[in-house]
Write a structure and sequence with these properties.
Length: 486
């Protein structure tokens, strides 16, 4: 029998116990992704806007990243265009965060790795960025068509004019530095000089006397890697250009001193069907954590198709459903449907837009991909975790009890899950609701409610990062569920 106690009267569920407590005093930049559903009655979609929180040890909080890193003092906090982003924070019981900003009290739950904050229909997930200090080595650019900045370990740099493409920037006093203003364009001109990097503050001292300070960040996965594969400067990703060296003279624009563009599409992208099907990466859904707390995903189909972005809602077991989902993705977002091919027994090549070719190594029998694009972990199939005998509770929902329990004989009971996921096959009526369940392959869960005339197919994913740490987080649709421990 499936039993649990539902909170009455709409009482808010407390935050689940974290795997490790949250420190009472926080200090540093936490990056995240805030998602906003198109329809508040439907599940939140992958994507949204990048957000950040900066904590200070004196109890202050800034609801964005600092404009010039943590080493640059913030002078005015009462400027009209950012006074609403300043507030205070409090950690309660090692698991709950309370943030007080003008007109709002925000509450977040800490699970030991991620901080989840819900603000009305908006949901955000955060994690701490590393405090970046030391030296840089190599050329970094935001795009193959844009100018780079070249660093050497001895503390010198050559700027080809990369700051011209950073967009509008916040000033220390809360003002805005508009990129299209003549004075600002002059301040961002190309040059060379010396640099320092301390506590996420990159200071550029140009030979002509200019001094610029930018916030510099790297992902937790890449923050200790040298040379850094990529660095975020003023909020924009800049990837390291392999084999590039600093030009002899500073460039005035994007063309001068530019390393060669992306490799042309070659025979490496010609898919060998047999080699691709037998590659350990085939049929995998892979995820990589981003510095803002968001997640990027790629799906490698055995026929050499690569789907960039959120996983296919069809799962991977039914060839006809997969083909239809790929065709729909190609119609709606053609750039997200690409190609991949096997490269020997322990590698693949990803053949992206504009002929770009990226090589990735396949490690741990297909459970990990590493390369210039970052590190990706394969999502375990739902068959690799125990679904039955556990009450799975929605992690981000605290205003009403939302959970589902499965039994080995193929039955389930749930409260508020159909409402949360927007399942059209669920009959009207009060909770709890019951029905039958089965897995269609490893990435789709079929729920057939008692008294309903149709079944709902729900994408199901196991969080690979939590799984690698011996913990269980199950995503139904876009919603995280964790085992109820009390």
């Amino acid at each position: 029998m499936l039993l649990w106690a539902t909170r009455a009267g709409g009482q808010e569920e407390p935050c689940p116990a974290p795997t490790a407590p949250l420190a009472r005093v926080l200090d540093g930049i936490w990056g995240g992704m805030e998602s906003v559903p198109n329809d508040i009655n439907r599940p939140t979609q992958i994507g949204g806007q990048r957000v950040a929180i900066t904590f200070f040890p004196d109890g202050r909080v800034l609801m964005r990243e600092p404009p010039e890193g943590l080493a640059a003092p913030l002078r005015r906090t009462d400027a009209p265009n950012w006074s609403s982003d300043w507030g205070t924070y409090e950690v309660v019981g090692g698991r709950e965060l309370r943030v007080r900003v003008p007109g709002h009290v925000l509450r977040g739950c800490w699970d030991g790795r991620l901080l989840r904050i819900r603000r009305g229909s908006r949901r955000a997930v955060y994690r701490p960025w590393p405090r970046l200090s030391g030296t840089l080595n190599g050329a970094y650019r935001a795009d193959a068509s844009l100018p780079a900045i070249h660093f050497t370990p001895d503390g010198t740099f050559v700027d080809e004019g990369f700051q011209q493409y950073l967009g509008d920037r916040q000033a220390l006093d809360g003002g805005i530095r508009f990129a299209d203003q003549p004075q600002e364009r002059q301040a961002r001109r190309a040059g060379r000089g010396t640099y320092s990097l301390r506590d996420n503050t990159l200071e550029l001292r140009y030979a002509d006397g200019r001094v610029e300070r930018l916030t510099a960040m790297a992902t937790p996965e890449e923050g200790a890697v040298r040379p850094l594969p990529r660095v975020y400067l003023a909020g924009r990703e800049h990837a390291r250009v392999a084999g590039a060296s600093a030009p002899n003279t500073p460039a005035a624009g994007p063309a001068a001193g530019r390393p060669p563009g992306p490799a042309a599409r070659s025979s490496r992208c010609d898919v060998d069907a047999a080699a691709t099907r037998s590659n350990a990466a085939a049929g995998g859904i892979y995820f990589s954590l981003q510095p803002d707390g968001g997640v990027t995903a790629i799906t490698l189909l055995p026929d050499g198709t690569l789907v960039d972005g959120r996983p296919l809602p069809s799962g991977l077991a039914d060839a006809a459903r997969v083909a239809a989902a790929v065709a729909e993705r190609r119609r709606r977002a053609p750039a997200e449907v690409q190609r991949w091919a096997a490269a020997g027994s322990d590698g693949i090549v990803i053949c992206g837009a504009a002929g770009r070719v990226e090589e990735m190594r396949v490690q741990s029998r297909g459970r990990r991909l590493t390369g210039a694009l970052g590190t990706y972990l394969r999502a375990p199939e739902a068959t690799e975790v125990r679904l039955d005998g556990v009450v799975w509770q929605a992690s981000d929902v605290r205003d009403r009890f939302t959970a589902i329990q499965f039994t080995p004989d193929g039955r389930f009971q749930e409260s508020n899950v159909a409402r949360l996921l927007g399942l059209p096959g669920a009959p009207a009526g009060d909770d709890p609701r019951t029905g039958s369940w089965r897995l269609l392959g490893g990435y789709v869960l079929e729920l057939r409610y008692d008294g309903a005339g149709r079944a709902d197919h729900v994408p199901v994913l196991v969080d690979p990062f939590e799984h690698a740490a011996g913990r269980s987080v199950l995503y139904l649709g876009q919603e995280p569920f964790t085992p109820r421990t009390r």
